[in-house]
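User: Can you write out an input/output pair for a complex, sequences first and structure second?

Assistant: Here is one pair. Inputs:
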Amino acid sequence: MEDYKFLFKVVLVGNAGVGKTCLVRRFTQGLFPPGQGATIGVDFMIKTVEVDGEKVKLQIWDTAGQERFRSITQSYYRSAHALILVYDISCQPTFDCLPDWLREIEEYASSKVLRILVGNKIDREDREIPVHVGEDFASRHNMYFLETSAKEADNVEKLFMKIAEDLMQQARSKDLLRYDKDTANITGKTSVITDSNCCSRLT
Amino acid sequence: MSFDKSKIDKALFEKQNELQKELDRLKLKDEEFVKELQHLTLQTEYIDGKIKSLSKVIPVLKTIRNEAQELISTISDLSELSEKINEKVKPLEIARCRVDECQKRVSDLVDIELSSQGVQTAIINEDYEEGAGHVHRFLLIDQSLLQRTASEAENLSSVRKAVQTLQDAASQLRTIIKHKFDEAVHNEDLGSVERFFKIFPLLGMHEEGITKFCNYLCMKLEVTSQKNLKTALNTTVADKRFNIVYADTMTLLFEGIARIVDIHHPLIETYYGPGHLLSALSILQQECDKQTKLILLEFNKHRQLTRRLNQISEINKMSNSSSFSKLEKIDPKDLDLLIHEVTIMHSRAELYFKFVRRKVTMDIEIGYPNKEEQVQKLYKLDMVISTSDLNQTKIDLLSKYLQLEHYFMEESINKAVNMDTLEPGQNTSSMVDDTFFIIRKCIRRATATGSLDGICAVVNNACGVLENDFCGVLRNRLRQGYPTGYLDLTQAYNVLQTSLQQGRLQSGDTEQARTAFVVALNNTSVSIEYVETLCDTTLSDVGQALPNITSNEKGKLESCLSGLSSVITNLREIVEYGMQQLRVSAIKPRISPWVDAFLNINHQLTEDELSEYEAGDTFMNTLISNLNSLLFTFKESLTSSNYDVLVGVVAAEVSSRLEKVILKTTFNRLGGLILDKEIRSLAAYLTTTTSWSIRDKFARLTQIATVLNLEKVSEISDYWGNESSLTWRLTPTELRSIMSLRYLTTFKKSALIFIND
């Protein structure tokens, strides 16, 4: 049995080439792989972080941006606790596609999912989308907003830690709720909020 | 005075003693000296002898020293000499090497002479193998060295001429061989094709040979593939393989390429050396891409894949926009064969790439011992594969497969739910078996594609369908509740039982609703087992189908499968919900009056009344027989695990109700005795009805009975207090109020101070 108290699934989506894989690599391995090929299907990484002295396991799903992998990547939305929607601040088309991505999230993800908008590549000189435009979009759609650079490791740690903290808070309040409900039951069975049961049973 | 004298005497005496002692010591020392002297005198002789013998050795040592010096000088002389010799030998060795080189060059020159003569004759005689052999021999010679030789030895004009001849012959041969090869290809003369193919490397035309040969093979491939496709198009519906005929055509294409590789790879390796398979395959891959495209074109046209996919996405859109459809749904059954064919196509492409990767990697590892070069070549192989049209096609096929499979799974389960039937004598209805059969089938099919991403996606989709649709259906059915109606429950059961036996269920709405409720409850708990099994079998199936997956990939799969465990959590909550429904509507209203009868019974009995009570129908006998008939109504209709849960619910309900009525009653000693006995028999009865332990549910009740059954109030101190091994479920306040139930008759109020908080 691994030593963690919470397990959260974080899914990254967004157009091809906006730097999803680089963000994940930077966070999980601390490196910036240059000349990264396009992701095939879905990649899977794990990193355990500590929030308020509790071990939190983040299961990060890095999806392929290309259209042809959509039917694979869509299947991961439903069980996601957090969805990171990434665009490239130096590439207008990746920003223009955001409404399409939101539609997709709307259709497949849980309504309670934590949604974060991320403008990546702030190390680049040729910015096309000003910060306030990204901010506006995020606030209009009820999302968190952050600009990052996977290359310079700017805000990457902050992004994932913020997600971990938020999800933990969410889980704790839900935990309390469940506890109240359970005491009313005569059997008094406590239900587990993390869905790691199966995993730990299999390994 | 006399005292003084004696003192002086004593002092004198002491002095004398001291002197005597000193004298003795000196005497002893004197003796020792004498002994030592004697010993030394004895040794003198021995030492003299030694000195004499030593003086004899001295001259010998002198000789040895002289001789040693002589030896040293000899040795140094020798070493000098050998160094001198060595200096002389070195140039000799160099000279010898030069001679060897010269010899080789001369023999090369001789060879060139011979070759230049031979090559002409060979060309004239059309003996290209020999001609190429001569050229090959010529090409093996270091060309720059040859140039130097020719210019140095100016008088040897014949050499220069020979070189010229050979160079001319080489280019002549190259043209001839190319031409001859093309001719052979044109005439479809396989023997000649292979013959000239073998000559290319002799003329240093490796790449050209491979390219030409592979182009020829591609031509062959095209012909065969076109023929296969034509046969496929002419296949009749009656044919057994009609439904997978395009997958078969694709398989034939891949097998054809594999056969080409298997047959010609040894040929290439023998005549061209290892490491050439990559270039050969990248040429073949182009033809493969071309042919797959043609096959898929026909496939799309005849199976109407695109149209069906559009239809599906249309249906999905409609169902989301709640304006539910006039749109005709596709029967999932109609898609079954198509999905099957797509699966086969994908898995064949996967297998083909695996084969190519294995073969070429092996060839590269042998052909390029240099690690850096190897990595570079392997990267090139990756590029050839990943940029090939077939790879794109493979990805598209998987994507289409997933869309079709998702629709198939959702709609089939939908159908299974709509066509739900209850077979007589069964605890569960058909939708459970059907649903899990469908899901298992879909996951198996995904496993057959050979793509882990595909498997994971189908598992994810299955989790979604189970959690949203399937669980929703079960929850809704339980939400209807368990109707009690006006009928007595036993009666209701009997009706239900007969209707089940006769296979008709129209005997009334209430009974139907009851059956539906119980069946839904059973369905849910059986589903939990099914999901667990599904998880295990999927893991082992995938392990078998993809034995080489990395630990990261395994983690990916397990993480997706963990989605199933949240389905289990969901199902458990539904069972719990159903049981609560049952408790509220069917258990509690029945049990309460039965237990409340306790209040009508006198618990302050005399001995006579006691025997009279025990002779008749006791309260507990009645209760147990009532409970028995209540449980019996469910025993047959519930699954055993649900029945166990139900017994637990009944036990909890009875014990809490009983506790309430006990607190409303007063007891004397005999009343307490009866109560204790009755509770024991109740616990014993309920224990026999289930495989689970329910004693725990009676812990409080048993303790209450024990307290009320005490002979004397002081006995409580045997149970209560720190020394006691009993774990009390009752608080001190509760204990006090229970004891006060007998206080009125037996215990004095003051006695209750035994119990401290």
